Amino acid sequence: MAPPEVFSLSAQTPVTCHAFNADRTQVAVSLNSNEVLIYAREGNEWRQIETLTEHDKPVTSIDWAPNSNRIVTSAQDRNAYVWQQTPDPQTGHMVWKPTLVLLRINRAATYVRWSPNEDKFAVASGARAIAICSFDADANWWVSRLLKKPIRSTVLSIDWHPNNVLLAAGSADMKARVFSAYIKDVDKRPAPTVWGEKLPFNTICGEYASPSGGWVHDVAFSPSGDAIAFTSHDSSVTVVYPGGPAVFTIKLSILPLVTLTWTTEESIIAAGHDCQPLVFAGNQGGWDLVGSLDDPQSNRSSGGRPGLGGASPVGRLNSAAFNTFRNAAERGISNVPGSPTASSSQESELYTVHQNTITSVRPYDGVPGNVTRVSTSGVDGKLVIWDVSAVTPINATGLVGKLGKLQVR
User: What is the pTM of this model?
Assistant: First the structure.
């Protein structure tokens, strides 16, 4: 099995989100700031080559259109910008030029994604609305129409159906929904799907609740568009087949997952606060957790993965503080300096590649329905590329006993 490619983009700052260009030679990231940094790959390293500065509050999401080579960004400043390379009139060099989008929202923009045809994009927000943006050639700017009802809280994630019309959204009102984002002057009349036939703008094609009432962190359509999967803050992953209809819920006893992506029609990779990408497999007969792309037990026995170095300064566990409370609770040992029971405690690292929450997982290599590699970024400042075929089984990951029962509703 091929080991993951691990890159440290920042030793001190979380990577909020990332997006690659079409040939994967460049990546755009946000390091928890109002800037978008573009890195170019040089051998086994990434070198910063551009800085996009137009937002005045932290950037929340980035998407890079593979065909048109346009970047769209959203931020807490309630704005979105479309960035396109144009020649500088003085030097002739290609520079990124921003175009402001009229979102008409009064809260932070939280998530953004291009549609499959790249002729429009959707921006989720804290204003209980989703802005569907298209280009007005006459006015030479991007305009938006808002999906509002029946959203009752911040929209945390969105994903486009392959037909360029339907849009899945997960929000903090504990619901995952499928909307129609049909725009008459932009879209062709869509063919009937399992989600419905007549699809005027803002039609609700499906609404599904989080199993135990947790925020829906991420949602994604399957490659065919005939199913959706979403992960919520109650540590569960739910897969919905509206044509069945069937709903499969996998409840976990680990920390919540916050991001997911489909690799094939029968495979999902999800990651989050447990710091490792988990692999789920199934079909309309049922779904289950099958393993992890990481191998923490092997790392533990070998004393850590070679080349990972020491613990990240922004690791999820501050071992010194954690051990102080654990020793006091379990052993009655005080680590107060000068105490006769005080013992030296050195910082340690987690036995996973990522040392903190994974914030984003995205397809890296392959085509929809046959993704061979995925990329992850995290709060530890790392960017990691994983081979999806290198799956460590459950019984070798330490996840045995943490898997809840599969529920079918």
Answer: 0.87
